[in-house]
Amino acid sequence: MVHDQTSTKKLRRVLLAVAAVMLVVTGGLILLSMPYWGAEDDPALQIASEPETEAPEIPTEDPTEPTLPPPPPNPYGDLDFQYDGRFLKLIEGESIAGIDVSSWQYDIDWEAVADAGAEFAIIRIGYRGSESGKINADKYAQANLEGAAAAGLDIGVYFFSQALTREEAEEEAYYVLDIIKDHDITMPVVFDWERVRDEKSRSQNMDRRTLTDCAKTFLETVEMAGYNAMVYFNAHQSRNLYYLAELKQYDFWLASYTDRMDFPYKVDMWQYTDTGKIPGIETDCDFNVYFPSYG
């Protein structure tokens, strides 16, 4: 009788263990079969990391517009900036320090950000879905616009574009203009197009001619509305995805994650890190230095 009870207990343990394993496996299969919406909701999750290992050479000619001179040369070099506390700034000449943010910084204590030395914020207003092509609001945009203004920061905005045509770029510009019309925007309104690392992304086959035309349409629309228009790019994009000679009338925002300026052309703002730490924001954020008044 004791032997039978022991055997029964052992059998129950085995059955329970098998059931537990089946439950884990079934749960895993269910999770794997569920659609993942986050990547499509916000292409910033899958931004392609484009090479920036070498400084771009100044091209001698532009194959599309050979009669256009290149943008003005950069008057600053690798010894013209140094850290002033938390932020990188010009050693000589005027510059201001700031950050750019989106919903990926979540809730922000803007008073703490201002107290920590930030003088401006570039706030994401929205983005176009990398697969669907639909325009989406940044869910923290209004809170960030209001909070940054209340803290006394200068404010600019950007739109994360996935436009494939001039018409889509114009749609994005008007979307931004409608959102910001009731806010005091003293910094640039920025066209930020970045390739998304996903085989389903609609931006995979973007070419230099088309993207330059999209940027021009967005920037022209913004400028006609009375705002300072700016285009964002890194060194790779400047060589391969834009004809900068055609955009030189607008402000340039360079992304180059180093503390040494080595870009050949005049830029107005420099995003020099994407791992900045500042009180008031729990996540990493981008740090920038703005110096538009030279040249």
Number of strands: 11
Let me know the largest β-sheet. Answer: 8 strands, mixed, barrel
Order of secondary-structure elements: HHEEEHEEHEHEHEHEEE
Question: What is the structural class?
Answer: alpha/beta
Q: Which percent range describes the beta-strand content?
A: 15-25%
**Which shape, going by the Cα principal axes?**
globular
Kindly state the mean pLDDT as a whole number?
A: 85
Strands of the largest sheet, in order across it? Answer: 3-4-6-7-8-9-10-11
Straight-line N-to-C gap: 98 Å
Number of helices: 7
Radius of gyration: 24 Å
Helix content: 25-40%
Low-confidence stretches: 1-9, 23-39, 48-63
List the helices and strands and how they pair.
Elements: H1 2-33, H2 38-41, E1 81-84, E2 87-90, E3 96-101, H3 110-115, E4 120-128, E5 135-137, H4 141-150, E6 154-161, H5 166-180, E7 189-193, H6 208-224, E8 229-234, H7 235-240, E9 251-255, E10 269-276, E11 285-290
Parallel strand pairs: 3-4, 4-6, 6-7, 7-8, 8-9, 9-10
Antiparallel strand pairs: 1-2, 3-11, 4-5, 10-11
Helix pairs in contact: 5-6
